[in-house]
């Protein structure tokens, strides 16, 4: 389901959300952080693969709009980039894959049972990716790892699950 290319068309209408000015320093007191993963091999092996903060926002709606603005800077031939919105306590609020001017948000899990199933499926995808890498199937391994990352993106903090699901309904 997640290994098909994204067919989402960019939204061209203005939504009225204010975006942060590029030359203004971000206020660390703002509630939401738009982040992307740092996936360099050295950072991952050393345990220093912390998310890179792209910007900070006061509301979730502004952070979602900021993610779309960031996606507009991604070229049409670039691989999808995983973005995550975190609250000030570093809890996952919402995540999705950004590519070519759009963000495909991942629906958050509804409960703990679904979360366990998603974790199991993500682990299986990573195991299959490791096997594919051993068999020199690097493209398949990359797709399987990306699928596992998208599954992990559904693991929104229990505090934010209902709120994030409602925000996605309103945004649709």
Low-confidence stretches: 1-25
Summarize the biggest pleated sheet.
5 strands, antiparallel
Average predicted confidence as pLDDT: 81
Number of helices: 5
Tell me the helix content.
Answer: 25-40%
Kindly report the spatial arrangement of strands forming the biggest sheet: 2-1-3-4-5
- Basic shape: globular
Q: Which structural class do you get from the secondary structure elements?
A: alpha+beta
What order do the SSEs take from the amino end to the carboxyl end, as H and E?
A: EHEHEEEHHH
How much of the polypeptide forms β-strand, as a percent range? 15-25%
Number of domains: 2
In whole angstroms, how far apart are the ends? 20 Å
Tally of extended strands?
A: 5
Query: Cα-atom Rg, whole angstroms?
Result: 16 Å
Write the layout of secondary structure elements.
Elements: E1 32-36, H1 41-46, E2 52-57, H2 60-72, E3 81-87, E4 92-99, E5 102-105, H3 112-134, H4 138-152, H5 161-171
Antiparallel strand pairs: 1-2, 1-3, 3-4, 4-5
Helix pairs in contact: 3-4
What does this protein look like?
Helices cover 40% and strands 17% of the residues. The chain folds into 2 domains: 31-107 and 157-172, no CATH class; 109-155, no CATH class. Strand 4 (92-99) and strand 5 (102-105) form a beta hairpin. The longest helix is centred in the C-terminal third of the chain and has 23 residues, at 112-134. It has a 5-stranded antiparallel sheet with strand order 2-1-3-4-5. Helix 3 runs antiparallel to helix 4 (138-152). Residues 1-25 have low confidence and may be disordered. The protein has 5 helices and 5 strands, in the order E-H-E-H-E-E-E-H-H-H. It has helices at residues 41-46, 60-72, 112-134, 138-152, 161-171; strands spanning 32-36, 52-57, 81-87, 92-99, 102-105. The radius of gyration is 16 Å and the shape is globular. With 172 residues, the protein is an alpha+beta fold.
